[in-house]
Amino acid sequence: MKMSKTLSKIYLVALAAIISSCSSNNQQGVSSTTGWKINTSQNGGFEAELNYKQQTPVGMVFVEGGSFVMGQTGEDILMDNDASPRQVSVASFYMDETEITNVDYREYLFWLQRVYGESYPEVYWNAIPDTNAWRSELGYNDPMVNNYLRHAGFSNYPVVGVSWDQAQDYCAWRTDRVNELALIKAGALKHNTDQFDDDNFNTEAYKTAQYTGAQKKGYRDLANPKNKDGRRGRLEDGVLTPSYRLPTEAEWEYAAWGHIGNSIEGNVSDGRYFPWDRNAVRDNRKPFQGELLANFKRGAGDNMGVAGKLNDAGARTMETRSFPPNDYGLYDMAGNVAEWVLDVYRPIRSNEDDFMPFRGNVFTDKAKDEEGYYLEADSLGRIQTREAVADNNRRNYRKAKNANVGDGDIESSIYYSKGDTGGEAAMYDYGKTTLINDNVHVYKGGSWKDRVYWLNPGARRYLNSDLAADFIGFRCVTDRMGSQNLEPNRKKASKY
Q1: Residue 341 confidence (pLDDT)
Q2: Fewest CB atoms less than 10 Å from the CB: which of 104, 241, 318, 356?
Q3: Does residue 394 belong to any structural domain of this protein?
Q4: Are 89 and 67 in contact (CB under 8 A)?
Q5: How far is the C-alpha of 373 from the C-alpha of 209, rounded, in Å?
Q6: Which whole-number Å values give the CA distances from 316 to 230, 396, 445, in the listed order?
Q7: In this structure, are 248 and 294 located in the same domain?
Q8: Which contiguous run of DSSP H or E holds residue 28?
Q9: Alpha-carbon distance 279 to 329, whole Å?
């Protein structure tokens, strides 16, 4: 039955009113518990972002989390039994497509020299990679010492010679630069390249009103409409990004496996030994048949093949994106350079959580004075922090540093079982019976220097946090906020 013109007009007007009302409600917001409007100055100015959708950070890909078997699934040739398989789960996160490159790191060094170079040159010098890592007592690698980091020919090659400590500092710097740009685009900050010493943007200092430079109009202050200067940005606005950091060992391993490409209806269809589908290191597709899928050492004296048929064309490291990515879109999760992860190394991992397992938590709080005010930022513009106060009444943690919980503490030591319950007895007697301590961190993935055994994502090694090597680089991750998938695959709940 056809609708009359009059009824049609009434219907369209009503529909427009409904759409307008919904749009208005979405924009203004209405409390689901009190019915009061929010995001308006008329009711006091309480603000909430109700339609937040996290954007994929530049240079990163989305890694949808899930459960997987963590640990070495292939033959344990070394017989060290330090990567026993177990089922764990990780939350969704974003990860760099490639390792941090030389040009990426040089941008960081340039910023440090520009901001701190005159007053605090040691900040810049301490961040420079150890280029002497290329030296070999019985090998000729001298050209790499002076050229690898700086020469334009190596710009898109992964940075090496970076310690775990230096990688952590880079991640913190990147957090601040990304957030600074986000606030500039939002109109809260001015574009200011004349930042020096403590007058530089720091995310935590900004949130605690410790950073006062380059202020612009800011956000409209609904709680105080007469405030012409506006207000600072807040986490609630959805503009500031979560911190960049190194991936945990579980996150790195999960991302390397790329099981999103070999799972059917929630089950892994085919087991893998490498980050790709086949249990071999060569491509089996006709256009690329026989080509290597990673940059690694094939045997003694064979780093790149013979002239005219250079298997991977990599004398040492190779330019990023030289090989196909895995199913998540991540490059070089096997070979090229090994990568630092966040975890403190321990040979036993079975006592860690099965959700987001990690060893090495150091819980901190922002430092406050006796009156409860945040301490003034330090001479580098960084907010001051302190270790969390120990509290034996807590159930979730009882000390700030937790690297050796359930493992390196006295209850876990060999001395405790012999009746020695006092003193400072520890499971790991560093320098005498082991090289394991709380400053030793895990690195993952094979490198240009490694045999095929180390290309397995479950393999793991360790090195002191202040040391570096010519085969270890890193990449950053940042956390996914809210929903764990980009396109929710669950329908809205309905009645049973």
Answers
A1: 97
A2: 356
A3: no
A4: yes
A5: 11
A6: 53, 46, 15
A7: yes
A8: helix 5-28
A9: 19
Instruction: Give dist(CA 459, CA 446) in Å, integer.
Output: 8
Assess if residue 94 is contained within a domain. Answer: yes
pLDDT at 26 over 50: no
The range of the structural domain enclosing residue 122 comes to 64-186+239-355+444-487
Note the pLDDT of residue 212: 77
163: its two tokens: 């310690």
Q: What is the pTM of this model?
A: 0.88
Within a 10 A sphere around the Cβ of 195, how many other Cβ atoms?
17
Is the distance from CB of 122 to CB of 457 less than 8 angstroms?
no
In one-letter notation, the amino acid at residue 358 is F
CATH number, domain with residue 118: 3.90.1580.10
Are 32 and 132 in the same domain? Answer: no
Q: What is the mean pLDDT of residues 206-219?
A: 81
- Cα 304–chain centre separation: 31
329 and 246 part of one domain: yes
DSSP letter for each residue of 265-309: TTEE-S--SSSSSSSSSB--SGGGTT-BSS----BTTBSSEETTE
Decide which of 106 and 305 is more confident: 106
Query: Where do the DSSP E strands lie in 380-445?
Result: 385-387, 440-444
Q: Tell the residue number behind the tokens 């580098």, with chain if given.
A: 380
Give how many domains the chain has, as a whole number: 2
Q: In what order do the strands lie in the sheet with 440-444?
A: 460-464, 440-444, 338-344, 472-473
Are 39 and 86 in the same domain?
no
Distance CA 332, CA 294 (A): 7
Q: Name the DSSP letter for residue 231.
A: B
Strands, E assignment, 39-154: 60-63, 66-70, 86-90, 93-96
In a domain, 158, yes or no: yes
% pLDDT > 90, the chain: 41
Q: Hey, what are 8's tokens? A: 């049609």
Q: Let me know whether 119 and 87 are in one domain.
A: yes
138 shares its domain with 17: no
Q: How far apart are CA 237 and CA 231, in angstroms?
A: 11
